[in-house]
Sequence to fold (215 residues):
Amino acid sequence: MALHCFYGGTFDPVHLGHLAIARAARDQLQATIRLMPASDPPHRPAPGATAEQRLQMLALAVHGEPGLVVDRRELDRSGPSYSVETLRELRQTLGPLQPLALLVGADSFVGLPTWHQWRRLFDLAHFVVAERPGVSLDQQLPAELQQVVSRRWASASSQLHEQPAGLVFRLRHPLQPESASQLRALVASGGQWKPLVPAPVADFIEAHALYTARE
Ligand code: ATP
Fold:
């Protein structure tokens, strides 16, 4: 069955690391990847750009990219973007049998036990975990998470198409050093930040004078 894959994040701003992961997931999973900006991030401080600006930058970044689309559902809902709520909403639309996956970076995944109702997430969706520099999925999983995922690792991406939820797939791809907070700091300090984003996103950041204040 077709796998529905959602990639949530603050995307403040979207950078080449995000895009590389989304492309790797698209190609390895044979699925359209829906990039879904969060409205009011529950896991980190308030973003530097408005939600609509973050959405516009995402639209610029995926323009003309096959298999990558932007999904604004979390912006159209009031309140914080808890993944468990988004996945419940998606399940209502897709029904109980359709395979559904959430794409996250390794740093997000090791922090999963801080997420709202995190154990429920495995009933609702698979996780696709992208490796990230500085985070070891072999050594840094908290014990309670390790316990939950130990019997869930998928050895092949095809397994994610065969059941609706509950597996964890490790997305292996060339490591991507980019980070949004590092990029914002570079903009504020007048450093070399443009190579970290697609050209239309760089133009947008300049046109709206985003991230010029130091955090
Ligand atoms: P920050 O650097 O400020 O923490 P970020 O670059 O992680 O921000 P987010 O919008 O928070 O940007 O990331 C969305 C998702 O993408 C998260 O799950 C994050 O782990 C993942 N991600 C972002 N950048 C990378 C990267 N370079 N490699 C792997 N995963 C990444």
Observations:
- The pocket of adenosine-5'-triphosphate is lined by residues 9-11, 17-18, 21, 104-105, 107-108, 130, 132, 176, 178-181 (CB under 6 Å).
